[in-house]
Specification:
The protein is of the alpha/beta class. It is built from nine helices and 14 strands. The strands form two sheets. It has an eight-stranded mixed beta sheet, covered by helices on one side. A six-stranded parallel beta sheet has the order 3-2-1-4-5-6, with helices on both faces.
């Protein structure tokens, strides 16, 4: 396998401490080598599972560290573009949290910076690495539910008790669509391979951010509808409705945290409107964060195509841009 990819993390974000830091530590062919933070508590949280981790006192110092092979960015949304470009300018491959940008046009600039630097840059869109989504895409491609007619989804949680949360603040790129609309919209694109032709959207606003959004879109062969909310009881589900069956994912986005990864295939094998036969597949142990890190490492070491290039992320952001434009 050769030497591991030595990762550095910009900032001691809670998500990096709880999920991506441990995932880098656990991934084959990866080593969590450094973090840039001025907070001792943040540094201590990383040392708890990686005692030898180096701590830099600035992001610039980490980007200048010749011992770092790749950078992970978990900063607030409004900082993603600038620090992704800074990492690329330093010659570092970079994996940046979603949304990697706040508008599709900004991703055009990232693609140019990536190509100019000649190193990999990608959005940390982990679900495409999960076997449940790879299986869903394969089933749709082989016609397991017949002609696809509709896709519907929901992703919600309630952070109303935390008004200072970056997701509740316009100046840090908050809102339900930037935070979780990337999943409902992006997963439909990933699973079907289609792009929306028209989008409408209704939004409930608080302090300049969309706290609940209802998106309806027409794709070439199906109609899409999804709700995202930061003001509702936690729920997540994606369903693909065809002429001959339904494909349903019950923990599509936070598999292993929200619930066990589970794919249900409902098919009316008897005809005549009788109850459908249900086939269930489960992935209790798959960790899409670990799989994401390993896929990134394979791209760096072996030159294989990364499953979620910036061009894919631009397509999802374009759909979100269309939703915001329709709502406004």
């Amino acid at each position: 396998m050769g030497d591991p990819v030595r990762w550095g993390i910009l900032g001691a974000a809670k998500f990096a401490i709880n999920h991506m830091g441990p995932a880098i530590h656990a991934a084959q062919g990866a080593e969590l080598a450094a973090v840039a933070t001025g907070r001792e508590a943040g540094a201590a949280a990383f040392r708890a599972f990686q005692p030898g981790i180096a701590v830099h006192d600035s992001y610039e110092a980490l980007l200048g560290d010749p011992g770092i092979d790749a950078v992970y960015i978990p900063l607030p949304n409004h900082l993603h573009v600038d620090w992704t470009k800074a990492a690329l300018a330093a010659g570092k491959p970079v994996l940046c949290e979603k949304p990697i940008a706040m508008a599709a046009g900004e991703i055009d600039g990232l693609i140019e910076a990536r190509d100019r630097a000649g190193v990999l840059a990608a959005e940390a869109y982990m679900i495409v690495h999960h076997p449940q989504w790879q299986r869903a895409r394969a089933l749709l491609a082989e016609g397991a539910i017949g002609r696809l007619l509709g896709v519907d989804g929901v992703f919600s949680y309630d952070n109303s008790a935390d008004p200072g949360n970056i997701r509740n603040r316009a100046e840090t790129g908050g809102g339900s669509l930037p935070d979780i609309g990337v999943y409902t919209c992006g997963s439909a694109r990933f699973a079907t391979g289609e792009e929306p032709e028209a989008v409408s959207c209704e939004i409930e606003w608080e302090n300049g951010v969309d706290v609940t959004a209802h998106v309806v879109a027409q794709f070439p062969s199906f109609r899409f509808q999804a709700t995202t909310s930061m003001r509702r009881h936690p729920r997540q589900e994606m369903s693909f409705h065809g002429e001959e069956g339904v494909l349903r994912l019950t923990a599509p986005f936070n598999a292993g945290v929200f619930a066990e990864a589970r794919l249900e295939l409902h098919r009316n094998v008897h005809g005549g409107g009788r109850a459908a036969a249900v086939t269930v597949e489960r992935w209790p142990d798959a960790n899409h964060y670990v799989l994401q890190v390993e896929a990134f490492g394979r791209s760096l070491r072996e030159g294989v195509d990364y499953p979620c290039p910036l061009e894919f992320s631009r397509g999802t952001q374009r759909m979100l841009d269309m939703a915001f434009a329709a709502a406004r």
